[in-house]
């Protein structure tokens, strides 16, 4: 188990290692930093064996709470299941540990920002279905995640670009013994582990976390996507301890009806269901998934993996195509002018554009700008991720 006691207000942050261009495990080249978490940095890298892109998560060898080897072991156990990045390598280098995993795309937090912090019900429900499947899988393997939040949900890349992945198992924990299958005991003296905004009420009250807490955090994520903001966001206080207390007060005072007002009853039903789960009770994943699947069908939606951002991407693609056509037309006219001009007066000095041969093509400024933005959206650079 990764034992990382995070007390409100204090967070272990490993110092940054600048690993650009270094070789990890003898065959992964570090390219550039793509993210930074509470426990270390994440780089994009390249497998020198087959040229595939990878993600490399590192921590210093003298980290106060080493977690990477533990995280690698969890990924190893989840390897056969869809929606978790493949573990490619774990190793200890001279002054740091490195875990190499499959490179993924943008996080739901980044995509939420891209979509102006609103997701349609259709997008939310397609995501919820996959998130429930991921949690079910984690729980079936005997783990609880303990840091369920939009920054830890990443879309895949390439042929997996429609698939939602769950990452970041540094705070995860076994809730039952792998041999005896015995559930961990109830305790009420725990510091908060995870991210306060999405933490369950029990977790904030110091109760040992179990499967129900992942489910409750997922409920807050759903409402975050529905509302754009949770009622306890923006709470201020003199210090972090007081801020956490005020967040807890607000979580307790906002009723489920109030939280889910204006959205289909299934969201309130889900919240009530998860808040009423007992400590050791196995969540009925099938029931909750069905609840949202029936809602999805009753709203007449198609499970076509067209998310809100897919449409943004295709609008951008369309703009790009139109730009290209316009440019081609423009070039064609220029070529016609050129022929006519040469025919008329051969001695007149030609301008810079005219000196280009027909095979040279200078990318127009507008196209260059659009194309790099388009590329960035699709490769989905990881953004900085900090606990809120
Ligand atoms: N496989 C990956 N592909 C692409 N980006 C990734 C990958 N893994 C992590 N990232 C990026 O790096 C960020 C931090 O990674 P991760 O959550 O694993 O680290 P962490 O130290 O546990 O972070 P935190 O505690 O802030 O959640 C992610 O939110 C994501 O943006
Ligand atoms: Mg994370």
Automatic annotation (TrEMBL):
Record-annotated membrane-spanning stretches: none
Originating species: Drosophila ananassae (Fruit fly)
Enzyme Commission designation: 2.7.11.1
Residues that hold ATP according to the record: 57
Region (Disordered): 340-366
GO cellular component, one term: cytoplasm
Gene3D superfamilies: Transferase(Phosphotransferase) domain 1
Protein name: non-specific serine/threonine protein kinase
Taxonomic placement: Eukaryota, Metazoa, Ecdysozoa, Arthropoda, Hexapoda
CDD domains: STKc_CK1 (cd14016)
Classification via PROSITE patterns: PROTEIN_KINASE_ATP, PROTEIN_KINASE_DOM, PROTEIN_KINASE_ST
Residue spans of biased composition, Basic and acidic residues class: 340-356
InterPro entries per record: CK1_Ser-Thr_kinase (IPR050235), Kinase-like_dom_sf (IPR011009), Prot_kinase_dom (IPR000719), Protein_kinase_ATP_BS (IPR017441), Ser/Thr_kinase_AS (IPR008271)
Molecular function GO terms recorded: ATP binding; protein serine/threonine kinase activity
Origin superkingdom: Eukaryota
Keyword presence, Kinase: yes
Domain Protein kinase: 28-304
Keywords: ATP-binding, Kinase, Nucleotide-binding, Serine/threonine-protein kinase, Transferase
Family from the record: Belongs to the protein kinase superfamily.
Pfam family, one: Pkinase
């Amino acid at each position: 188990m990764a034992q990382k006691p995070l007390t409100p207000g204090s967070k272990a942050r490993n110092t940054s290692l600048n690993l650009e261009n270094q070789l990890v495990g003898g065959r992964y080249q570090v390219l550039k930093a793509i993210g930074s978490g509470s426990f270390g940095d994440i780089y994009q890298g390249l497998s020198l064996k087959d040229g595939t892109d990878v993600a490399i998560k590192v921590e210093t060898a003298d980290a106060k709470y080493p977690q990477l080897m533990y995280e690698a072991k969890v990924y190893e156990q989840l390897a056969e299941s869809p929606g978790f990045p493949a573990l490619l390598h774990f190793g200890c280098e001279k002054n740091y540990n490195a875990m190499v995993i499959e490179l993924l795309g943008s996080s739901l937090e980044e995509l939420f920002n891209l979509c102006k912090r609103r997701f349609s019900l259709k997008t939310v429900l397609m995501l919820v279905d996959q998130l429930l499947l991921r949690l079910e899988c984690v729980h079936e393997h005997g783990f609880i995640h303990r840091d369920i939040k939009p920054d830890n949900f990443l879309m895949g890349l390439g042929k997996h670009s429609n698939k939602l992945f769950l990452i970041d198992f540094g705070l995860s924990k076994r809730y039952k013994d792998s041999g005896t299958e015995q559930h961990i005991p109830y305790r009420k003296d725990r510091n908060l582990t995870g991210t306060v905004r999405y933490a369950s009420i029990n977790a904030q009250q110091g109760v040992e976390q179990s499967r129900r807490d992942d489910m409750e955090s997922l409920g807050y994520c759903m409402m975050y996507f529905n509302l754009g903001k949770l009622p306890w966001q923006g709470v201020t206080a003199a210090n972090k301890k007081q801020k956490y207390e005020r967040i807890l007060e607000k979580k307790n005072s906002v009723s489920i009806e109030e939280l889910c007002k204006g959205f289909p009853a299934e969201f309130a039903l889900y919240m009530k269901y998860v808040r009423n789960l007992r400590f050791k009770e196995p969540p009925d994943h099938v029931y909750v998934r069905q609840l949202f699947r029936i809602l999805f069908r009753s709203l007449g939606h198609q499970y076509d993996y067209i998310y809100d951002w897919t449409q943004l991407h295709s609008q951008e693609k369309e703009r790009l195509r139109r730009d290209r056509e316009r440019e081609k037309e423009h070039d064609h006219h220029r070529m016609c002018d050129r022929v006519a001009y040469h025919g008329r007066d051969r001695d007149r000095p030609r301008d810079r554009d005219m000196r280009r041969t027909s095979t040279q093509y200078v990318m127009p400024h507008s196209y260059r700008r659009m194309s790099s933005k388009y590329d960035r959206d699709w490769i989905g650079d990881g953004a900085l991720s900090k606990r809120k």
